[in-house]
Design goal:
Blueprint (H helix, E strand, L loop, with lengths): L3 H6 L9 H18 L6 H11 L2 E2 L4 E2 L3 E3 L5 E3 L4 E2 L3 E4 L4 E3 L4 E2 L4 E3 L1 E2 L4 H4 L5 E2 L2 E3 L4 E2 L4 E2 L4 E2 L4 E2 L4 E2 L7 E4 L4 E5 L1 H4 L5
Parallel strand pairs: 1-4, 2-5, 3-6, 4-7, 5-8, 6-9, 7-12, 8-13, 9-14, 12-15, 13-16, 14-17, 16-18
Antiparallel strand pairs: 10-11, 18-19
Helix pairs in contact: 2-3
Length: about 190
């Protein structure tokens, strides 16, 4: 018997309709519903729900509702991470963020992918590729981070960008597809006098 969860976590082709995976997504959706229905004055309840939903989180994680993910347990974030309204994380494989990552509204992380061939897509199988975000990254509103992408530290992703390739440290990228337009190192390095 095929263990589809193990295959999913290993980055291999798996069946997302597998009963175990379906039950885990259902459990995550119940937690998201509870979280998304909280009020601003229910900070303790929000923290409690996030501790059940998110795989590993450093201190001071702030997620403005609504927030959506597939499983939650594949999400790892460092300290002082912020998600603004309406962010989506399709975490079929690890989605990992460093410290002080800021996600503007409507940022989406798609670790899930499918076959390009229509005939092969009919099988219903999907695949996950991990997403890694460094520290001190600002991701502009409406940006989409595609499967398998690594974004280095101290980067800025311009609003509306679709990031389909790795981004080196200290880089500003914009557009669809996102392309590097500026080296940000001079902004981070001490200036000589």
């Amino acid at each position: 018997m095929i263990n589809h969860k193990a295959q999913m976590l290993a980055g291999e082709w798996y069946d997302p309709l597998d009963p175990t995976l379906a039950a885990e997504r259902r459990a995550a959706r119940l937690l998201m519903k509870a979280y998304n229905d909280t009020r601003d004055d229910e900070e303790d309840e929000r923290k409690r729900i996030l501790s059940l939903l998110i795989g590993k989180a450093g201190p001071n994680l702030i997620i403005e509702p609504p927030f959506y993910c597939d499983y939650g347990y594949n999400i790892t974030v460092g300290e002082n991470v912020f998600f603004n309204f309406n962010c989506v994380v399709l975490d079929v494989t690890p989605v990992t963020m460093g410290d002080r990552v800021m996600c503007a509204p409507n940022v989406q992380f798609y670790a899930a992918t499918h076959q390009l061939s229509a005939l092969e897509r009919r099988t219903g199988l999907e695949l996950g590729k991990p997403i890694v975000i460094g520290s001190d990254v600002w991701i502009g509103g409406g940006s989409i981070i595609l499967p398998g992408v690594t974004i280095g530290s101290r980067c800025v992703i311009g609003a509306g960008s679709v990031v389909s390739k790795d981004v080196p440290d200290d880089t500003l990228v914009v557009g669809n597809p996102a392309r590097a337009i500026r080296d940000l190192r001079p902004l981070h390095e001490p200036q000589s006098t």
